[in-house]
What we know:
This protein is mainly α. It has helices spanning 12-16, 20-26, 51-60, 95-105, 113-127, 133-150, 153-159; strands spanning 35-38, 41-44. It contains 7 helices and 2 strands. The longest helix is centred in the last third of the chain and has 18 residues, at 133-150.
Amino acid sequence: MGEASNCVGCGYCCIQAPCAVALRVYGPVDECPALTWEVDRYRCKLALLPGSLGENFRKELVIGTGCSSSLNDWRRDVRPRPRPKAVYHVNPLPALLQRFIRSAVRGDGFMSSDKMWLILTSFRSELEGDYSQQEIDDILSATAAIMTESRSSRIRSFAG
Length: 160
């Protein structure tokens, strides 16, 4: 293997196969949802996270060490690549968040459909600007599914 060349953000690595970090965060996916096109190159949203979490991801992904694929012809043609919608094989929400959502809507608490809608609308506003529309739709769908599944049948039949 030859010497590594500087990364040009062509997206080759992330589009061809999700890395170990993406697989831990999103579960088994066909394509990494953290990969985003920004003006003139691809970037990893996980590596852009602030603080030690982003720093640890950058170290694990060896970001900044350069491209080691001598067969990568995308380097000469950096552009957005057509990508199929990422398919989640598991719920994309972290397990602790899933547990929190379940505990918030089950039990003796009463959460009307209107309250659920208001929470999801507020959550959508919080996500805008940080995630693509498709990612927001996926996150909200997963959240709504957990909320709906966790409500007791008595409340579902009463509240709709």
